[in-house]
User: Fold these one by one.
Assistant:
Number 1:
Amino acid sequence: MTSITRAQLLSRSARGGAALLVAGSALSQFVEAAAADPLPGSDLAYARLLVGAELLASDFYSQAIAAANTKPTVMKYLKRAYANEQEHYQSVAGIISGAGQTPAVSGDIDFSYPKGTFGSEKSILEFAQTLEGTMLGTYVGAIGGMQTNALKTGLAQIAACEAQHSAYFNTVLGGRTFSLAFPPALTIDQASNALDAYTA
Amino acid sequence: MTIRSSTLFTVIALCAFAVAGSAAAKSSRALAGITVFAGSSMTTVLPELDSSNTYSFGSTGTLAAQITNGAPADVLMAANTTTAASLYASGIVEKPVNYTRNTLAVVVPKANPAGIKSIYDLTKPGLKIDEAASSVPVGSYTVQVLNQMGLNAAVQANVVSQETSDANVVSKVALGQVDAGFVYLSDYVIDPAHLTLIKVPAWAQPKITYSMAIVTKSPNQKAAQAWIAKVLSPAGQAIFVKDGFLPLRSPVPTIAKVTPLKGKAGAKVTVAGTNLSGTTSVTIKGVPAKFTVVSKTKLTFVVPAKAKTGTVAVTNPSGTATSAVFRLLR
């Protein structure tokens, strides 16, 4: 039987509670903002794109985890990133459903990856690094491009999370953990083209 | 006499000609092929495939209504899968088969006077946009794309006309009567001289599949079946692809058995299953293996040097099948 100290138990409970709180608050922020007033069409267009991007990220991490080609330490981060992306998906999909529409779901978009993406730890990490850079740029662009102020805090929280993912993959690949003071924002066209590159 | 003879000869000649003509007419009808009712996006490709058929091009819904009302069609070639499926359910056509796929595109006049560079530009107020009515397949796909991208309300505000076919949208755009229109990619491929293509993102594309079916009451069942086989043949499919359509997706592979289910690097392994002929990759726990397709139901691969114990995955463009765990022996 595995023993657990009281301190460990409290720590785990606190982490779990915090995760639930953050996920709950981000999701409810988006749903409430979308439901409160009719969202501008351009915000819905951005939300649709973010949903597509999160579906790509979730699909990639699920395949990377299934390939089981990484060390346990890396696998731990892949699983954490996967969980984060799923929470992000729920949140941005909440913008669409809050506006009374149906968000895209897994299976609506067929993704494709460069040959050998899941064949080794290095190839998985390199794709993850590129993906997270794109996700960061997409969210930074969305913060600037979306008009509904009530959505911006939640989008910034997701952007911060994607930046953390990006820093981890930069580090584990032996590069600089971070470098730019102002990571570039992608326009909606650039983000759409980036997503398109991995769509079958 | 001479005249008589001559007259008689003329009469005999005319009779012979008439008989020959009648035979030729019968033969011509036999060779003339069948009557095909097809969506208007097929206007160029089908005569390329067989110029002896009689074609009637139009909106899939209108053609289906005509067939339902007894129009003398042998085959319906729809621009979607739902129409033929619906007629099949009513017993009006035989079981449909898919025959090609397409993608949605935006076209603007060659000179692009409105300066449209992206589908997102179509939301700019004041543009004149043309689309097919939502009762037409290409029109319903347009609405699907715009909904998927969250652009429907803004773009619909700029729609100045709704057409009964993609061909009508192409005409108006090519003539510069509108700033942009939604059509199939195949519409652009046949007229690139007068149009500029604006890509619709792949992530927002609907799955556009066309299906065809033989009309149950067709008196030309055999010829109709031969036509279906011709359309689905490699040569037939190549003509569709040349004209901007997408090749049919091969069915998803399945794995029935991997023999042996353990082995060392370099060992030859056999996979039995279905739909294996279009295989694009074989991996063991994600590590790619060199493979040889033997038949639709059999392929072999060599266990790669860097292989690990794990499932064998066989992939084709439509999907992936995975086996039980293959154990790597050292």
Note: Residues 2-31 of chain B form the longest helix (30 residues).
Number 2:
Amino acid sequence: MADESLLSDDLLRQLVAVGHVDILVGIPTLNNATTVVEVVRAAQAGIGKYFPRARSVIFNADSGSDDGTPALVRDATTDDTGTVTASRPLRTTQRITTPYHGLPGKGSALRMIFAVADLLSADAVVVLDPDVTSVEPEWIPALVRPVLSSEAEIVAPLYSRAVSDGPLVTQLLRPLVRAAYGWRLQEPLMGEFGCSRRFAGHCLDRPSWGGGAMSDGVDLWMTGEALANGFRPSQTALGPRLLAHARKRPGLPDVFQQVMEAVSVCLEAHAGYWLTRGPAEPVPCTGALPGAVELGARPDVTGMAEAFRRDVVALHPVLATILSKATLGGVSAAAAAPGPLVYSDELWAATVFESLIAYHRAVMTREHVTQSLLPLYLGRTASFLLQYGSSGPAVVYDALESLGQAFERAKPQAAAQWKKA
Amino acid sequence: MSDDDPLWYKDAVIYQLHVKTFFDSDSDGVGDFKGLTSKLDYLEGLGVNTLWLLPTFPSPFRDDGYDIADYYSIHPMYGTMDDFKTFLAAAHDRGLRVVTELVLNHTSDKHPWFQEARSSRDNPRRDWYVWSDTDDRYRGVRIIFLDTETSNWAWDPVSKQYYWHRFFSHQPDLNYDNPEVRDEMWRVMEFWAGLGVDGFRVDAVPYLVEREGTTCEGMPETHEVIRFLRSQLDAHFPGRMLLAEANQVPELVRPYFGNGDEFHMAFHFPLMTRMFMATRLEDRGPLTDIIRRTPALPDTCQWAVFLRNHDELTLEMVTPEEREFMYDEYARDPVARLNLGIRRRLAPLLDGDRRRVELMNGLLMSLPGSPIVYYGDEIGMGDNVYLGDRNGVRTPMQWSGGWNGGFSSADPERLAFAMISNPVYGYQAVNVLAQERTGHSLLNWMRRLIRVRRSTRVFSRGTLTLLDPPNQRVLAYVRAYEREQVLVVNNLAGTVQAVELDLSSLAGAIPVEMFGQSLFPRIGTEPYLLTLGPHAFYWFRLRRL
């Protein structure tokens, strides 16, 4: 049930006018004036082209933009985009933009989107990131069809990634979610996703909505909620995911902190599920991904490796509190070894799990655990890029698959330690 | 006629009927003018004020009478010319105007004109039709009857040339580049107008003149022919009306009104299609779109609007996606599809849903234009798609649950078309007699609807201003004429709807619901909240007291 105080009377009046919809496209915004119009156009064109008979609404939950984003959403038209001239839906695609109050962040916006989907009895919900510049009309059917056909209740994206793209996902979250939740989901941080009304209603009913991890880590939390509660997942190929460069983003330390916090929240919330979950199952995929293109400057691998070597020495006393002797020994040996840095899959899997258990046990402040893990993450990433940075997609795929298997092998012991803690 | 208003057609509520299948007075299985005359009280009681008759000329009936073999007679199976005159006088006595068919574009190939024309290439009538040594002239011109014709040319083995036909190959097109043809058609009009016919429904108007390199539709020379006929009619029979059948989008139909010097009326085909589309989509978009696209007309002109008629529900003027949607929603059974359309009557199209039938009729009677009720639709008659061509919507009128539905006392096997006899729409279940005896029957509801429609000129002559409530399932508009205003609110959806209307420009008015005379709260400057049941509609007369 939607929270009674969540929706303003004005919004409710607009929803009364919209009524039941087949498809709801939610766009959470905060000062996205430079990119949001294309996202709205793509959504509208996708509905018109692929679901011309659908009752649909594009719902924008805005967190108080001062750059005119809501007006741009309201006024965005498809008339002047040549690619979508033949994409006129038979039914009117309604458009609502509304401010939301309370804690800023994507979590609050998603909560409002889910509440609206619940009230409008939307058969399928799609959430699009307003910052994405590579969005295409085809993303709408890709995210909607598995839900409408009841093949899935949560549709995660598949992005084309270059080997150096998104190491937080490829080196940490993907293998961790695979091992813990038992699903081989490629993109646990669902920047864009589709879901069923049942899943939206489920999330809405959770008591966990709030600040902190629920604000910054809501993407991962939703993934965990879906997997831990039996909502059938699927993955759909969307292609490259390009973000607007203009926006100022938090630095790696902050992002890493947010991710670790989110991971911890999820593992604690879903311990009853993941501690007993067996080997990972494949997640059905639809569509095919085009080859990835290297975007922007390649990471400074040498710098990352140097930071790793330096910080392992400097942080040794702290790491000794977090990691087991064997793992710390492995990390220290890797840091001390001459030649190209090698941080093996097994060692990295043990590092991550042990750090999370330390985080869970609160052997020290959580920030310190995170700060200690960050250089190890840099070392692992540098190691991977040194080894596979010039490899073809198939080799990289196999390497990441090996990493996932290593995490799966490490899981039983980690689960046992978690339970003891 | 006592009413000598030259703009009478603006206030017309037209009833379209087929004499052939309306009432058979002489038990030969075919309706006739004596039968029709005996049913005029029924039509007067229904509340209509104009009758439009399908063709009653001598014909080989390969196109149900639209293939005319003699323009100056009544087919004997319909009676005599005296029977027609008697009918006409009786109709006029009841205040009913009569509109007959004028098929200008083509004749039957059995018409003596064509028989003469084909007899030799130098026959004086030869140039009354369009001939060619080859079949590649006017290449690219669309074929209208796609299901039966493969070319607009047909080979005449007698005179060994091709002749042009836009419809069936047994309907050769007349050649309006020949002034003799034009003059002859004026004599036809003069003949019938002289008998007292009040108007002509002119068939297939756009196709009169052909020109190479064009669509052969709506040529400037076609408009010259129309202006000639109109000027003749005005000069000799003022107050008579011309109604155009031009199956095109309103922007392209607009030229047929000219500057008020061509047609008085023309059918609004897309409005019909979009009423069906909007109610199935439960979205007013298709209707508001076509209303906004409909151009203004000269003051003396009027649209003719309808839900169903003797032809298929045309889907020519929709996008492929829209056509597919319409087929899926209204003609899942492919046998119901014909050409680019659907050959069904109103009630079966709407699954016999009384609420939807009422909503559609409510739209018909409240949107701009003179409404046309197709015979039998006022009682919810069904159809028989297995009769071939469009005959399935031309089955005999169902007057009672008795022998042949009260249409004829002939042997059932002798009827022009078999009666509808299935358990849902058959004459035993759906007939005038039963519905006359039931207060809440569709027939009695239609009588009330037409009475309310005719109680004011705001619907027939008023302006229309669309409202734009946020609820897309609701179509609302204000009709205004002189000092009168009517607010119309339609729920296009099959579910209950709430709608907030911005009526601030009408602040102070008191809405009075026109069917029950119920008062509603005074309109203020705040949004006016209404709730509507499934497919419900309201007509509010706005009073300022």
Note: Confidence is low (pLDDT under 50) at residues 80-86 of chain A.
Number 3:
Amino acid sequence: MAVYVVAACSVTAALSAQSRLESRVPAPVLAAVGPTIDSARAAGLPTGPLEDKVLEGVTKQADAGRIAAAVRRLAGELAAAREAFGDRATTRELVAGAGGLRAGLTRGDLVRLRAARPGQNTALALEVATDLITQGVPSDTATRVVLKVLGAGASDADLEQLRMAVERDIAGGVPAAVAASVRARVLSGSPATTIPITPRPQN
Amino acid sequence: MLAGDVDAYGIIVDRYHGRFARFATRMLGSREDAEEALQDALIRAYRALGAYQHRERFAAWFYRILVNRCRSVLAQRQRRRAVEEPTADQDSPTSDAGFVGREQATWLLSRLPADQREVFLLRYVEDLSYADIAAITGVGESALKMRVKRGLEQLRQLLRQGNDG
Amino acid sequence: MADDLPPELEAFVTGLRTTPSANAALRERVLASARGLGVPRRSRLPVPRSLLIGLAAVLAVLVLRRHPEGRDPARPVPFVLMAPKAGRVSIVGDFNDWDQAATPLQRAGEHTWWVVVNLPPGRYRYSFVLDGTHWVADPAAPRAADNDFGAESSVVTILGKGS
């Protein structure tokens, strides 16, 4: 019975996915993306993100070929993330890994970031690294910065604070790499540098 | 209507069954195949109700699901190497001039390629606008109108041959 | 009109418009399936009966799972956009199937549009749509790494409880 329950879950998931798309997606697009989604499902990859990509493409009025190409690309990135993380990775981790690869993280970066938080969900760390890159921080700097704060025992809230602080600094004109490095230093508890204050001349 | 409200869905099934069954039967030329496609589509639509956001009329939303199911049935037929035309397809059933009986109607429709038959039925039997049909089928309006034009020409020619023969 | 029905086809189409009689058995099969009883449907697919029974057993308890981390309660998340020239604005994203009609924004004053969306913890890609045609990423949020369709999107991350 357990085998049937697992099989039934897969069939139900497949039917649910089909229903979710069939009510919104024109038939030519369904035909174009169906094989990729079926293959991803058969390979044990999450199909929710692929369906989201299809719906995004339909809403943005992309043609079937372009949507299919986007879905294939994402499926490949999810597979690469799973290859880096192993079979126990959660869907969110896989999606975060795929996003990181798209932004410019390497497979090695993914492995290092995951290893820096053993036994914990590393999705947020990957997402923060990705967001730093999309804001202009070089990918190697982003990886180094996130690893630094993780090494200092950063919580999810700390990681989110890092991202927001770097974003504010960049908006204020600080070069992206500098902003990331400085904020990481502060958050990881590196000793502060005291800047001597020159007294104002009195007249 | 909540996705879990089966009784409410039963009311919807009753209300729309006639027109959906009509489309499926005319499209597939077989009551048995039409019932299978319709049943499948109704079950899928029930599961997808959570995704139905009242963005469009329920009928148009459901037609899209039904059109896809009919296309799947036709594709399955092709794979089983079954012919689309009814077995008695060599000759058109005889008819009095001006009267088109059910057998003849089925035969005439079967003569149309599936893509022309589909838009012909949605336009003239189901009375849908080209905008709705475009949203249902994923085909642009100008392509749809071309299919209609060709379909009408073919049907007129077939009717003329049937009445002359 | 170019596609008016030719007179010689009118009788033909009239005949096609008759609707088949209601099929009570089909109706019951559909509703039974909806209730999760798994009544086997007539099908040419070689689906084992035992699999159908197993499917029926779990149907009642399975839900669509788009956000596996969604066991934490959803939080109200505000989205705000300055768009003084827009006639209507909506937000589309992973949380509403990218559906333009699902989540319209309201106007606040002359220039500002806003909406609050309840989101479980997770990460979501999204975009604003102005007047149904103009796509705008959120200037106040990070960009999504992917831009597959020529219109940039943004990302929002909702932390879980205990973060």
Note: The longest helix of chain A spans residues 64-85.
Number 4:
Amino acid sequence: MSRSIEINLRVNGEVVHATVPSRLNLVDFLREELSLTGSHVGCEHGVCGACTLTVDGDTVRGCLMLAAQADGKEITTIEGLAENGQSAQLQAAFTKHNALQCGFCTPGMLASALGYVNTGGSADRDAIRQHISGNYCRCTGYQSIVNAICDVIEETSV
Amino acid sequence: MTGPAHIFDKPNRYIGKPEPRADSARLLQGRGSYVDDQKLPRMAHAAFVRSPHAHAKILSIDTQEAGAATGVVAVYSGEDLAEHVTPYIGTLTHLTGLRSMPQHPLAVGVARWQGEPVVMIVATSRALAEDACELVYVDYAELPAAVESETALDTGAPIIHPELGSNLAWERDVVAGDIDAAFAAPDVHVVEREFRFGRHTGVTLEARGTVCDYDPSENQLTVYYSGQAPHMMQVIFSKHLDLPEENIRVISNDVGGSFGIKIHTYGDEIATAAAAKLLKRPVKFIADRFESFLTDIHARDHIVNAKMGITQAGTIVGIDFDDLTGIGPFSMYPRTSAIECNQVLNLTGAPYVMENYRAKGRVVFQNKTLMCQYRAVGHPIAMAIADGLLEDAARKIGMDPVALREINLMADDSYPRTSATGMKLDDLSHKRALRKLTDLMDYDGLRARQTLARRRGVYRGIGFVSMVEVTNPSPMFYGIGGAPIASQDGAIVRLDAGGALHVSSSITEQGQGTNAILAQIAAGVFGVDLNRVKVTTGDTATTPYGGGTWASRGAGIGGEAMLQAAQALKDQVLEVAGVMLQTGVETLDIQNGAVTDIDGSVRLTLADLARTVYYRGNELPNDLKPELIATRHYRVTDFPFVFTNGAMAAHVEVDIETGFVKVLHFWAVEDCGRIINPLLVDEQIRGGVVQGIGGALYEECHYSADGQFLNATMADYMVPMASEMPEITIAHIETPTKTSVLGAKGAGEAGTGGAPAAILNAVNDALSPMGASIWQMPMTPERILTALDKVD
């Protein structure tokens, strides 16, 4: 039913060797095998964005990628972003603007926002709304999230 | 003695300040603790075989192969668990005549909706449990399904519970005045519409789930619960799993959204607890998204025929309507599925002076997912009926909808009073709210630009709602009917040896900022810096007994209990300080973590006081026995609910070629009494508005004629995403409720309750030049084109 595959990868800077079932997806691997529970599972079909993380610098849905496909890759989860300081500005802005409520979408939302900011996204509110439209938030009205991302871009560009 | 009058204007005054939440840092670093993050030793995982049919007799179940599959620990059928779990019935005595039938965690004999759990597999991993589900063979004989509520009461319709003789669960009539005579009077115009409100659901981003851990050595069940009412669940597990209440601990850590979804009794969660007890080891069940769509409670599903009578001069003479709502095959336990209809009957037209009122509600069983209380229970229906008809009537008599509201809204100085349906109302501000709203949105300018746009063939619409919201419910909501649901809440405030406060409360945190406002209230009332308050909520073992956070009650009820407890602790600390300093307590205060003179000069730090009490009691007189801990409980008395009010407006553009609606802007003026934290309130109202827009424009559970849920994925069920949502401007009026010192009313449901009516009115305003209108939600492009007679 489930063939195993050996993988070698780096997760948040640490070298990981593992033998994983071929059907195991990346986010389940991170959560269940590595106890990196900051990445969340919301829909398991790539729509809600709760499992968004970074693979070799690209923003990726952790539920649409198999753990086996992560062989040789560099994965950064929310825990890694918090640890290495990359998301510090966004974290501060999200706090200031109350851009989170239950917090379940937040790790994925931050990863998407970071992708936008790091690729030189502008402080254009419509553009930001377009960019985060792959991340579902049921609690906020999205406005505070847009405010937070705008703030970071405007601070950075000063 | 410091009195309550001082607490809103003193050092460490946090009530009313936009303080960021302390717990956001944890959530932003991926350090949240949600149910699925729990990992316990020997933990097994549950998966369920669910009915593929809306209605079917279960002829046989073959679990032999599944039981032998890799990793399988146990397999349970409905009959197996029925031996260990007593059935439950979702009725309450104050909803006179409400009928339902006993429900089991897994279907026994007959499956009554697609998705009803039939067989439970417990295995060493979720993947292996799901593998084994594939090896369970259930032989069903399909039965005719009662799917549509409209035909559920017809002669010859399939009867879901033959013992009841029909699919009618509940009905109620409300009559005030003489509506027939009022409508027949000369000079009265009557507008009449059929409203349809589609079924939608909560779509919490974190799906439902539970981890249940049973320890046979102490006969102790610990439940990690993603939900809103830990003490209610404690009673339910006790009652139906035959365990003493005190042997059940329910813990809610972080909850990934709830909105009323996670406050009910779900068979798969009860089955998980039963399995943990039978297997004497922890069992986890986390619903996947498909299971969430099929089994989380659904909401709305109303068909309403409604009339409003109005004089040519613009006086509303009355409302007459008939509401039919489908609730699935059972009334949900323990809150029942009749509350939403009851709210519609009670709340429709409540902002308006009206003498004549007639409403009939019927609640029917059907073979769809169970329907129950989701955010803003009944409000979107009630507001859309009254304000939809009001703006329809305004068009009929050629009057501006704001002017028409000015004539009919209850005057701000006319309280206390009752609504046409007898609801007690006080401390409301409809007219001030509407005026503030029209100023905020530049109503006249918007109308002028609308006229110009129409000349260019651009169809924009402006729609309003004036609304009430039920908040801070008293025991009249559930407790009176026999539900194990507390209407009071408790707070404990403890001064620790280091001079910090540890507070706990029975209200719960699902992201609203409950913990933050509890800390603000305690810090401000007692007199310490905000960062010296630690908060515990969501644990039946360590918090006072209470209801939890739902029905917009957390701040108003739990907040008041915290205020009273902090005040009581302050009085107690000052008594100790008075003895230690040989000073009258009336000359002392607590500010910035120290006992001070009234002028603020420091006499004794709280740490010094607490260390003396805890470590060196020998320095105190023997008859002084300080506790440095205070508990207070609070419930609303004299009123069944504390109503709030608000006025909202939507500005939309309808593309008459494609039927698409773009919401250009949304405004909300809310009067939730005293605001504890505007930063939290504003975004919570915005989130509520977005959920309301979802119901108005996008969200619908589509069913086939034979009861198959057709769009149970997030790709097919449309939820609002950032790019479709407008900027939302929020403003407030603060009319504190006189029922408490704090003066806070609820705010959590206003947006969801009001936005659908405002959007409906805005779309109909946009369509009015074509003589078209729409009365069905969600207002999809296809339905709008149908209303425009552009498609069949």
Note: Residues 23 and 66 of chain A are 7 Å apart (CA to CA).
